[in-house]
Amino acid sequence: MHKIFILFVLTICISWNMPTPNWQAKVDVGLLEKLNNGASIDFLVVLREQSTVNEAKTLQNKAAKGQFVYQKLKTTAERTQKNIRAILQNEGVYYKSFVIVNSIYTQGDLALVSRLAQLNEVQSIQSNPQIHLEVPEVSRDGVNSRDLIEWGIERINADDVWAMGYTGQNVVVGGADTGVAWEHTTIQSKYRGWNAGTPDHNYNWHDGIHVISPLHNDSIISPDNNPCGLESIVPCDDNNHGTHTVGTMVGDDGEGNQIGVAPGSSWVACRNMERGWGSPASYIECFEWFLAPTDLAGENPDPAMAPHVINNSWSCPEVEGCNATNWGTMETVVNNLKAAGIVVVVSAGNSGSSCGSVSTPAAMFEASFTVGATQPSDTIAGFSSRGVVTVDNSFRLKPNVAAPGVSVRSAVRNGGFATWNGTSMAGPHVAGLVALIISANPALAGQVDIIEDIIESSALPILSDQDCGEISGMSVPNAVYGYGRVDALAAVEQALQLVKVKDPSTYATVQIAPNPANKKVRVNLIAPAGNATLEIFTLTGLPIYYEQWHHVNGSEQLINISSWFSGIYVYRLKIGGERLIGRIIKG
To answer: How far apart are the C-alpha atoms of 267 and 261, rounded to whole Å?
Structure first.
C-alpha cells in the first residue's frame, strides 16, 4: 500500500513538472520565430484569468466606479501573477506588472518564454512591437495670435456653451500621446498640477517611456535627438503632437488664442510614445496610470485622481505588429476604463476613404468612442477612416461621430502654433465636448453610456453617397459620419434636461432585462409607490413608446420591441420628481 502511494505521489510530481504539451501554441508566431533565431526581445505575458467588472454599471458615481474597478483588477493581478513574478525576479530581468489587463511586460530569450508559456495560469505570450504615430498632414503655418475663436470650436457651437457659463470647469481631461509642452501659454494654467512657482507633477503627469525606440536607429539621449530623455519627471513633448491635441481640448491664453473646446477644464497627461513610436506595453502603461494615477515614483495609485475623459489620437495598425493575437488585450483595457466611468475618445484613423478602413486598435473597439474628421464645409475629410469594422469580422459600425479635423490650429512646442489635418485633430474636439457636458451636469460624471448617447443623439445628422456593406450612407448612423458632426450646444442642452442621478439605495432605480433584447423587455422599477411615466426615444429624438401607470413595488412593465429596428434607444422614466435615464438595445 505504501509503495502504491509513493508511486502515485511520484507520478503527480513528475506530471506537475513536465512541460505543458504544445506550449508553443501560446506564443505569437512572429515572436517565436525571432526567439528561435536566438534573439532576446521584449514581450507581454497575458494571464488566463481576467476580472469581470460589469458590476460597476450598478454604481452611480465615477468615484465609486473607479475604486471598484481598480481594486478588483488589482486583487486578481496580485493573486495570479505571483509565480511569474518570482521567476522573473530569480532571472534578474526587468518586468512591469499591469492590472488594467492582467499581464506582465518583460524581456528575455527562448528559454524564458518557454518556461513562462508552460505555466497553467498563462493564456498567451504576445509580441510588443514598436508602433509609429500617424503624422498629421500640415495644412498651413500657424500664426501666433488670431483674436478669433478657431473655426472648429465655432462650428460645433462650443462658444455658445461658454456663453451659458459652462467651460468645462471642475472636469479633468487626459491626453495619452507624445507628451505635452506644459509651459505653453495656452495650456500651462490649465494643468492640474499648476501652481505658480511650485507646480506639483504627482498624480498629474506620467512618462511611460523607459527605453529609446530601436526604430530610431540611435541610442544617445541628447537634446538634439531625444529632447525629453526617458522617464521625465516633468511634462515634456518630443514630437508636438501631444501638445497640439491638449491645446484643442483646453487651450486659451487670454490673448486671442482661443484654441480649446473646454478652456475651463484641467488636463493631465501620460507620454506613451517616444518621438512618435509607441508599443502595446507603453499604451497599456498609460491607460493603467489614467485608471489610477500615481505619484512621480509610480507609487500610491489613486483612482480618485483619474480624468473624466481620455483623448487617444494614435493607432496601432496590423502592418506594424498589432493583430488578432493581441487585439483582445487592448480591448480589455478599454473595456475596463469605460467600466471605471472614463470616456475613451479615439481618433478613427487616417486610412480613408475606403469602407472598412477603421481597422486598428483602439478605434475599432466597441467601448471606444471613435471620431472621424470633417472639413469646414461639414463634409468628410478624404483621409478620414470609414466603417464598418471588417478586420475582426465584427462588422461593428464606426465611427461613432465626426468632428472638425481639417485646418485645425493649436499649440506646439516652444510657444508656437501649427495648423494640421487629421482625425488626431478631430478627437480632441469630442474630448473637450465631454468636459462641457459634465460641467453643465456634474451628475453625468462617470455615466459613460449616457454621455455617449447624448453626443450621438444631438449630433447634426449628415448623409453620404457611400454605402459600406449593408449600411446605407443615406441612413443615420452611417459608416462615414456615424451619427453626424457633433454639436456642443445641442448636447449640453440635452444634458441639462437630465436631473441628478441619485444613488439607487436612497430612492429609485430601474432594471431593464434582458438588455440587449430581440422581442420583449421587462421594466422593473424599484421605488416608493406613485404615478410613473415611461418614454422611449430613438437616438435622433423620435418618440417611439409612451406609458403611464400607478407604480407599486413589485410591479413591472412588459414592452414588446419585436417590431423595432435594431439599434440603441434611450428611455426616460419619471416618478415622484425623479427622472431615470438609460439605454435599451434592440438586437
So the answer is: 13
